[in-house]
């Protein structure tokens, strides 16, 4: 959604925006969650409301207090969140109304002095994690209860990505901003004392692969990266009977399975590391074993003859993990086997210019772009970036269609060879 930002709105003007947005959201049916609705009116109202509330906070606090809070408070928010997640403290607090537990019991289980743990928890309470119904007693809030579900996501972000972000200045200095002859291609390598890429580093550590898999499962189950956006964002049913889709870099097949479940006309081959084959084969439902198959393959290697028979070659959340040179290798292998009339579907975020999107969407987009930089030495791309990349891979590749489903962070770009 395009948003025109009023640079100096008054508090009264912002209050009017907030009132109007709340009125729209209150009309949602009781069956629809405010956080999961796909109603375009509700999504727009929610975005406008978040933007207006943020402007109110900044306006009331003033620039000095905003910057001081960012420098002083936010690092300690992350520190306390990391400790709570590391020790799984949310599992030590009973759920249910009027239930709490002494901090001394939690401290004993964590082997942390109770006075220190109480200080950490009280800091976390300032941003809504837990509350203290009486002195020294800890009870859940809605936010702390949600940590139980989101723990794998938090583990990946706080244990793997946060150290990388903190070493970004060192990478800029040591790697000279990513020049080709640099030893380090990302801040991740400095933070974790390795010259391996994230992918080769993680392959040697099953615990990291497991964390990453759980993280991906969470972000693709609901919200702007939900797998349903890929299912609904392209006319898969129009491919005809016995259509073949190859999900390139498809992990354990969660996207391929979703496509096969929704479209009986599809046969899906999921390509990824041989290390994932056992788990991927086990995940395929019995009813789909005749239409979903796992094929060990590296997308840095030439494609098989099978790919030359595919109607669609799908790249979902693959290219943003790699720099332009690596992306060219991947795309050229696909273009080399793309049969006449077949398509490459690239499902990725398409960055807009600053101010194009609402506040919450833009801050997530920019944060993801920074994460690509720190973790992989790669980036999120604008549409102009994407077009240049596709043309550099094969001058005959053209974007012939684009769809961004409602509520989706990703755009599905359809590429065909046009001679």
Automatic annotation (TrEMBL):
Domain O-methyltransferase C-terminal intervals: 177-393
An example GO biological process term is: methylation
Which is an annotated GO molecular function term of this record?
Answer: O-methyltransferase activity
Keyword match Thylakoid: no
Instruction: Report keywords, A-Z.
Output: Methyltransferase, S-adenosyl-L-methionine, Transferase
Where are the membrane-spanning stretches?
none
InterPro entries, alphabetically? COMT-like, COMT_C, SAM-dependent_MTases_sf, WH-like_DNA-bd_sf, WH_DNA-bd_sf
The family classification in the record reads: Belongs to the class I-like SAM-binding methyltransferase superfamily. Cation-independent O-methyltransferase family.
What name has this protein been given in UniProt?
Sterigmatocystin 8-O-methyltransferase
Native source species: Aspergillus udagawae
